[in-house]
Amino acid sequence: MMRTTLKGRNQEVAASYVANALKHSILRSFRALSSSNCAHCRNVALKDFLDKKRRLKQMENSKQARARSLPPASIASETNPSITPTVPRTSSLPPAQPAQESSKPSKKRRISESEPPEAKPQHQAKKPRTQEQSSAKKPDPQSQEPASRSPATDETKPIVPQKKGLKQEAVPSKGSKPEQASTKGKLSKSSAPPASGISKSWPSNVGKQKIKGLFNPAQWCYRRSVLQSLIAVPQLFNLLDESHKNCPKQGRCVTCAMRQLLLSYHSSSGGVGSQLGALDNAIRATGKTSDPRWSAVGHTQEDSNDFLQYLLGTIEKAKGVQKDQFSSLFGVKHKISWSCDGCKKTHVHSDPPNFSLSLPIPKQSGTVNITDCLNTYHRESNVTIRCDKCKKNSKRTRVFQLDNAPDVLPIQLMRFGFGARGPTKNKQHVEYPEELDLARWSLDTSKPLKYRLQAIVAHSGTLKFGHYIAYVRGADGIKEISDDTIMNSSPKEWKRPTTNFNPYILVYIKQ
Q1: Does any domain span residue 223?
Q2: Run of H or E residues at 407
Q3: Domain containing 4: what range?
Q4: Which terminus, N or C, of the chain has the lesser number of Cβ atoms within 10 Å?
């Protein structure tokens, strides 16, 4: 009997190694499919990708069928014979509920993700932003969280394209209430609040949970990458946790859905499937009146910075959110001044606040860093302006200075240009520091204005197609997140993402 059991366990271990190798091979095939410009090479890569996906699906179905036939207490140990099942020692759980799989800490770079469905690559839509396709199988709502949130997991899966026309089961029906995230006790705040009055520290019982993946049912990587970068900001969590409660717009309020997603994401247990689906539904409902781009079912490709502007603008208008406070938290504001040589009058104009600082990338030889971008944006310019006092037109020097430096500063690197054949993407590498001081570009240059890098949204592809990912600073280090796939990232990649991904949005937090 013991020999039979050991033999079965050895087979499971061997199958696990084969599955992991196959998943890495699928990822390589997908990257080859995404980067190839040759039609024949794409067809070969597509055939190889689908064949490997079919083999992997057969292995997973066989594994699930065997798991259902095992007693609950033996599932984890049969999956990995080197450890014992991690069954919570509490009487509150049903005795028949199977334990989650766990394993020894993996030395592999990829650490976690959810079960992606079988997929076929789809034809690309018109705007440059995304390249994903949906799956042929409907996902389980709870699978939007990576398959195992245990730090010991070594499951690996590729970035899976999705299939057009898929409805996600995680999205609740119209009028239904999203699943509420459970929190034990009041979320206590710590540390003195900054100028916005919102603490920049995580509450004592959140912020230490591991990063969770966000399932992408269609071509919403532009949304998922932005959501990951905002979820990593403690000020947004603290703001919505306190200011937006008891909203009457059940099921149709983007801010309510975002609040529930934040609470669920930072909860120690449970997935984020239903909360993420509720947010997508709320965005679709409000997009019909605010912006048609967000009312689509997920098969259009959009710009991640446009979505960031829409989402923050919607939260700013929500009931219970103070506009001045939110502007201090996210609003970037500049002052423009110039003096008339004739009457000596100084003219000052304040631009309305924006939710990101859009920096042009200068054309120059050699290395370009973010200081060059900031200097280009804030440089003095000679313009002909009519003086309101003396009624004369003459050339003046216009000065552009930072008036309001928000607590959270998203910086957009404008990667759009024009070539001989029309609009093109600027793939110029831009160096950016982990610590950034904006004092030299502000009205008050005597005081330091230091920020720390918290998240990055990066894009791979062209203006016609591509894929977005996010780099996020978490409690257990820096992670690279592609939808529901989570990988460890090194400090080198944090400063300069590898391969074809170009940093597009840098999210800094004021220190």
Answers
A1: no
A2: none
A3: 1-33+45-62
A4: N
Burial class, 159, CB count within 10 angstroms (exposed 0-12 / middle 13-18 / buried 19+): buried
For 117-185, the three-class secondary structure string (H helix, E strand, C coil) is CCECCCCCCCCCCCCCCCECCCCCHHHHCCCCCCCCCCCCCCCCCCCCCCCCCCCCCCCCCCCCCCCCC
Q: How many domains does the chain have?
A: 1
Residue 29 belongs to some domain of the structure = yes
Q: Report yes or no on 53 lying in a domain.
A: yes
Any domain includes 25: yes
Q: Which of 206-215, 319-328, 468-477 has the lowest mean pLDDT?
A: 206-215
Residue 310 to residue 287: CA distance in whole angstroms = 10
Q: 112 is written with which tokens?
A: 């976690």
Long-range contacts of 380-384 (CB under 8 A, 24+ apart): 383/338
Secondary structure of residue 449 in the 3-state scheme? coil
The separation between CA 132 and the C-alpha centre of its own chain, rounded to angstroms, equals 15
Residue 321's pLDDT is what? 86
Nearest to 79 by CA among 89, 88, 66: 66
Q: Give me the pLDDT at residue 306, please.
A: 93
Condensed to tens digits (0 to 9), the pLDDT of residues 15-34 reads 666 776 777 677 666 666 55
How far is C-alpha 413 from the geometric centre of its chain's CA atoms?
17
Q: In the chain, pLDDT over 90 holds for what percent of residues?
A: 27
Tell me how far apart the alpha carbons of residues 13 and 80 are, in angstroms, rounded to a whole number: 6
Whole-number Cα distances in Å, 17 to 21, 148, 341, 387, 503:
6, 17, 76, 75, 34
Question: How far is it, in rounded angstroms, from Cα 226 to Cα 48?
Answer: 32
Distance CA 1, CA 7 (A): 10
Q: Which two tokens mark 278?
A: 């509720």
- Integer Cα distance of 150 and 322 in angstroms: 38
